[in-house]
Amino acid sequence: MRIVFLGTGEIALPTFRWLLESSHEVLALVTQPDKPVGRKAVMTPPKIKEVAEEAGVKVLQPEKVQSGAVLDELRAIGAELMVVMAYGQILPQALIEMPSRAIINLHASLLPKYRGASCIQAAIRNGDEKTGWTVMHVVKALDAGDVILTVETAIEVEDTGESLHDRLAEMGPEAMERVLVEFESGGGVGVPQDESLMTYAPKLERGDGKLDWGESAEGLARQIRAYHTWPGSYGVYRDGKGREKRLKVFPPAEVVAARGEVGVIRDGVVQCGQAGLRLFEVQPEGARRMTIDEFLRGLPIERIS
User: Fold this and answer.
1) pLDDT tens digits, residue range 256-276?
2) Lesser CB count within 10 Å: N end or C end of the chain?
3) Which residue, among 206, 208, 207, 214, has the nearest Cα to 304 in the 3D structure?
4) Chain centroid to CA 190: how far?
């Protein structure tokens, strides 16, 4: 099949590489523009762009994919199938109607659960036992298209947002291969989602990682795993001069029996709304990563907010 791939996030890389090595023809990659990275603001391309250029695939990087000139260029390419995977822009109806066969999206949750950008983190934080890929038809509404197929994986007790992201990335080619077989055999119609079961997982910002010690220790332990490495999880403490600073918390964190005032920390255990949470590794604002014991020896705080 003649395919145009729309993707930016690194979770799409294994699937894009698989397509390049398959018998299908990748006509073009549409990805986000290069962005400034680091203190020196060095303009850096998405990794997927580098992969495409190495393979000699045409690359488009529109600021807005809905611009008329971009749509004209894509229309001229003449794709049978468009594949969307962690692209990062809202698609106009004109593009959705463009390919001769279909435009499909690979979404990293079991829809209709967790439409939106933070679906991987939401599955861990909410204590789900499984997640996976949903391949669906693209419609104007967010992640609301008919489901063609799903590929599932168990969420392990030690999984973090990072480890689950990486495992799903490696599963992407399987989902891609299966859906292409569907289309080649005349299938790929899809089944409507049950809107009554829909949940939404919005894009996460750095401030979303603030730990609320009034919640249960079990829920906070899941948050710490889910938000590693982005946006990270943190509490707030006062240094020796009374200044508020962030204390980044790394997984794992262990739920232990404890009773007391919320936010009090003793021997590396923070009292939560239910039970306590033993911390192991932290990073004080402006300092290196260290064990909780090292941190408390240097600054024996009694409370964290």
Assistant:
1) 999 999 999 999 999 999 999
2) C
3) 214
4) 24
Which amino acid would we find at residue 58? K
Tokens of 262: 């919320």
Which percentage of the chain shows pLDDT scores above 70? 100
For residues 125 and 221, give the distance between their C-alpha atoms in angstroms, rounded to a whole number.
8
How many whole angstroms separate alpha carbon 187 and alpha carbon 180? 9
Q: What does the pLDDT look like over 98-117, one tens digit per residue? A: 999 999 999 999 999 999 99
- Give dist(CA 22, CA 58) in Å, integer: 17
Q: How many CA atoms lie within 13 A of 251 on its CB side?
A: 25
Neighbours of 205 (CB within 10 A): 9
Q: Which residues pair with 152 in a beta bridge?
A: 132
The rounded distance, in Å, linking the Cα atoms of 55 and 82 is 18
* Phi, psi angles (nearest 5°) of residue 39: -65, -30
Report H helices in the chain: 13-21, 47-54, 68-77, 93-96, 119-125, 161-184, 217-226, 292-298
Backbone angles phi, psi at 187, to 5 degrees: -95, -145
Q: Considering only CA atoms, which of 62, 97, 67, 68 is closest in space to residue 82? A: 97
CB 130 within 8 A of CB 150: no
Q: How many CA atoms lie within 13 A of 296 on its CB side?
A: 17
Question: How many angstroms separate the most distant Cα atoms in the chain?
Answer: 70
R_g (Cα) of the chain, nearest Å: 22
CA distance 109 to 210: 24
Q: Which of 135, 198, 206 is nearest to 171 (CA)?
A: 135
3-class secondary-structure state, position 130: strand
Amino acid at 107: H
